[in-house]
Specification:
Length: 231
């Protein structure tokens, strides 16, 4: 794989604190990504916003406004994580689908692919720019647009299970599953819209635990212990 999109769970970025940023976790991610970049792999990144806000956190706020708060949470995450990446020696650029003053660049496919070809790690913040679409959907959309070879899904859990391992200790993890089976069984790897986008555009996914040692590098080097989602 020469070009990948890495989706980072917001909760995973928070580490044990479960909220905000865990700097050690973010530096660990940055060092792994630097190994990939040094090998000539082009990396784009999407972060979730769950370490600050989830779209349905509040029942008193209008859904559109709640989703807008979530989009801004991902902008904060991307600005923070991109600067951690710079700290460990990479060039970065943050793109958003809406204007954020001088904080970010406005997304276009041409600008994003040009940045990748310059050796930058690029961050896609702000989701799709519209409510009712998750960061998973935004990540798949961007992966398709930049013609990534695969989407790497780094989550707080280590793969896709037949039921929620948080509530069912007997849940069984899949080593490999088709995206059609993910849709048919309503498995919560990514939301339904994102799953259908993957299916229609033949975008494979590799789902794994971010907090496992060297999980990003191991995934790219074939030492994969998560769930492979085929199309």
């Amino acid at each position: 794989m020469k070009r990948v999109l890495l989706k980072l769970s917001g909760e995973a970025l928070a580490g044990e604190k479960k909220t905000g940023f865990d700097e050690a976790t973010c530096i660990g991610v940055a060092k792994q990504v630097k190994q990939l970049v040094d090998e000539g792999i082009q990396v784009a990144i999407v972060t979730g916003g769950g370490n600050f806000w989830r779209g349905r956190t509040s029942k008193t706020i209008d859904r559109t406004k709640a989703d807008q708060i979530g989009m801004l949470a991902t902008v904060m995450n991307c600005i923070y994580v991109s600067d951690i990446f710079r700290h460990v020696g990479m060039k970065t650029e943050v793109f958003t689908p809406f204007v954020c003053g001088a904080f970010t660049s406005l997304f276009s496919k041409d600008a994003a692919t040009a940045a990748l070809e310059e050796g930058k790690v690029i961050f896609f913040a702000g989701g799709t720019g519209h409510p009712y679409f998750s960061t998973d959907t935004g990540a798949v959309l961007r992966a398709i647009e930049i013609e990534a070879d695969a989407m790497l899904l780094a989550k707080a859990i280590d793969g896709i299970y037949d039921s929620d391992p948080k509530t069912n200790p007997a849940a069984v993890k899949y080593d490999e599953i088709t995206i059609q089976d993910v849709i048919d069984q309503k498995l919560a790897a990514v939301d339904l819209t994102a799953s259908i986008l993957c299916l229609e555009n033949k975008m494979p996914m590799l789902v794994f635990g971010l907090n496992e040692e060297n999980s990003i590098v191991n995934t790219m080097q074939g030492k994969f212990t998560g769930t492979k989602v085929t199309v």
